Amino acid sequence: MYFRSIAPCRATLRMASAPQPWLPSRILLCPRAPGQRDVRCLAFSTDFVPANYTPKQSDPLRILFCGSDEFSAESLKLLHVRMVTNPDQIRSIDVVVRPPKRIGRGLTKLTQPPIIEIARKRLLRVHKRDDFNDWELPPGINLIVAVSFGLFIPPRLLRQAKYGGLNVHPSLLPDLRGAAPLHHTLLQHRQYTGVTLQTLDHERFDHGLILSQTTPESMPIPEGCTFEQLREMTALRGAELLARALRDGLHVPPLTDVSPMLSSTHEASGKLRLAPKIRKEHSQLTRASVGNIHRMQEIIGPVWFLALDRRRDEWGQVQRFIVEEIDSSISAAFPATMSGPKGSGRVHKAPVREGAVETQWPDETWARYFEPMTLTMMHEKKKTASEATATAAAASTGTDITIQTSKKLRGKRPNLSPADVEANYDVFHLKAWVRKLPWGPTPGGVRMPLKDVNYVYLPDLKCRLINITAAGKGMELARPLLEKARCLTKGHDLLVQE
User: Fold this and answer.
1) What sequence ranges are listed for the domain Formyl transferase N-terminal (predicted)?
2) What are phi and psi for residue 196, nearest 5 degrees?
3) What is the pLDDT of residue 454?
4) Whole-angstrom distance, CA of residue 487 vs CA of residue 310
5) 138, containing H or E segment
6) Element (H, E) at 348
7) If you count DSSP H runs as helices and E runs as strands, how many of each does the chain have, helices first?
8) What's the distance, CA 167 to chain centroid?
9) What digits encode the pLDDT tens for the residues 233-285?
10) CA dist., res. 95 & res. 123, Å (int)
11) Is the peptide bond between 362 and the residue preceding it cis, with omega within 30 degrees of 0?
12) Residues sharing a CB contact under 8 Å with residue 122, sequence separation 6 or more, in sequence order
């Protein structure tokens, strides 16, 4: 629901923050970003809050806001609105951000946290900190708010602030504790999400008292929801949860923990899981995860896989191949249309899936232009407890380690025998289709785009690989690189090409 205002004037903002008799008690109006004239209406009435709660009186707040990304930006925007429209509640806001970091190949690109520009436009004082060693709170700060910050706030600073610290976390704590709850929510195909307002614990991340929390049924995840959409949805809800908590004085001692109210919800949701920081291994394609390749590419970024690169020797060296681009449209998975010369009217269509039944792949016409191949991938085998103990014991005594780790195999032993591969790696194969070579006019007069020669179609996964990078090398087109390394072969054996 939206309310249209003539201009984002101070009177409009004051109306948004003041109670309105014609609105339900739990509706909050907040303005859009500067330059936009919509006033957004957020209506939430199903959050977990203490029963028969009476708002507490708080001193005017001088907030130290610690944030970084787009998720934390929404909370800062709404707190600033409250500061402008109700200075008796929020007197001032100081912002702490992480210093800019270099990213990309060669660390040549310097990125600024998005929240810096937001703070500067609102004339808020900004402090850049990568740690809090020998750093003191600005004078008068009585509340610390950390939203998607990434640094642990030391107990020394929390004790200096009269009201301690608060945190907005985009999950239904204690479920999905960790640095990447949004990523893991989508990767686990959750049907709902939530937001939690908790205190900042003096010892560990995400272990504070839960002051308020949304209910699962109030935040269902739409089908096909992207990471950006989920982040925006939870950011807006988290900002509203934080603003209402400050209005009602949930931060004022004695604090009320609503965790007992949440026990039935968590029991219904099943086993609690963690949401650790997304690392390189989370984007690796394995036998178990390759079926989720589209989701992984959308949520985490470029996926990668291990394969034997046999461009230099017969046995091969374990190489990491990065999939820079995946096209998962139906027309990409099944190159459906091949048109003949202009005016010929010739159109050849590839087979398509109909429900759970796949039509014969390919028919005679299709086989004339494409040929079947096998794309071979591999990943490290998980060690059993006894193997891990044996490896640790051998390393501590300085004896030879018979169970090789993947790092040692790639770094110390570039030439792998079939026995090495069988002992340390799980190898699996994917059905693939590629254009026949040489490229050019077919006997029937049909021409295909030149770039299509370089694509690798994976019909079982309904996608095609467009660009593949060998780790540490430059960008290469998928098919030539995979064929040179003999990861893409006509045979089904790991090391022998038929």
Assistant:
1) 62-245
2) -125, 140
3) 82
4) 8
5) none
6) strand 347-349
7) 14, 24
8) 20
9) 999 999 999 999 999 999 999 999 988 666 555 545 557 899 999 998 999 99
10) 10
11) yes
12) 80
Cα gap 389→458, rounded to integer Å: 39
Query: How many other β-carbons are positioned within 10 Å of the β-carbon of residue 488?
Result: 23
Residue from 148, 149, 141, 210 nearest 175 by CA = 210
Which of helix, strand or coil describes residue 96? strand
For tokens 């989720």, the residue is: 292
Residues in Cβ contact with 484 at an 8 Å cutoff, skipping those fewer than 6 apart: 311
How far apart CA 75 and CA 70 sit, in angstroms, is 9
Fold of 44-269: Rossmann fold (3.40.50)
User: What ranges do the domains of the chain cover?
Assistant: 44-269, 280-390+401-489
Please, which residues have CB within 8 angstroms of residue 222's CB and are 6 or more apart in sequence? 229
- Point out the residues of the chain with pLDDT beneath 70: 1-53, 103-107, 260-270, 329-368, 383-415, 437-451, 473-475, 491-498
Query: pLDDT per residue over 435-494, tens digit each?
Result: 776 555 554 555 555 567 788 888 888 888 988 888 876 667 888 899 888 899 885 444
Supply 21's token pair: 């008799």
Beta strands in 140-255 (DSSP E): 143-147, 165-169, 196-199, 210-213
Looking at residue 200, its pLDDT comes to 96
